[in-house]
Amino acid sequence: MRKSTTILLAAALSTGGLMVTPAYAAASAATPERVCGPGFARVAHSKQAVKTPSKRVLGYVYLLYNRKTGYNCVTTFKTSNVGIPTFTMATITTQTRGANPRASGENEGRSVKRYLGPVKTYGKGRCVKYMGRIQDDGRNAVEGKSRWKRWGNCD
User: Which of 66, 72, 79, 129 could form a disulfide with 123 if both were Cys (CB 3.0 to 4.6 A apart)?
Assistant: First the structure.
C-alpha cells in the first residue's frame, strides 16, 4: 500500500504537478548577499537603478562591503528580460582619499540571464564609485546605465 502511494504521488508530480528544478531554485534564490558571499552586507545607498535614457528600469546594481576583509563587492541584477541572454556589466573603482583612482574591477557578460557578479576590490581606507549596465533584449539595442556620481562608502 505504501509503495503504490509513493508511485502515484511521483506520477502526479511529474505529469502535471509542481516540479522545482535545481537550476530554477538556485536562480530564484540569488540575492546580492549570496552572490558576494559570507560577510558581505549592503551599504547605505547601495541599490542604484539601471535605467535607459527614457527612464525605463532594466535592473539594479548593488554595492556590498565586508568589514572583516575590507573588500567591496558589486553585482548587477536584471529585472527586465530575465531569462533572456543580454549584455550586462558591473564595475567598481576605488580611490584613496585625496589621490587618483586606483584599484578597479570590471566584469561583463554577453549572455547574462539573471545577474552578473561578483566584482570585488579591496576598499579599506578608500572610497568607491560603482556602476552597472544592462542591454535590453537586443531587438532595439537600448542600454540602461547606473552610475554613482560621487565617491562614497569611504571606510
Answer: 72
Angle (CA) 46 88 124, round 5°: 40
Cα–Cα dist 151/131, whole Å: 12
Of the pLDDT bands very low, low, confident and very high (cuts 50, 70, 90), residue 31 is very high
Measure CA 87 to chain center: 13
In a domain, 154, yes or no: no
What are the helix (H) ranges across 17-112?
Answer: 22-28, 32-36
Set of cell numbers at residue 61: 546594481
DSSP letters for 96-126:
ETTS-EEEEEEEEEEEESSEEEEEEEE-TTE
The answer as to whether 35 is a domain residue is yes
User: d(Cα 12, Cα 54) in Å, to the nearest integer?
Assistant: 47
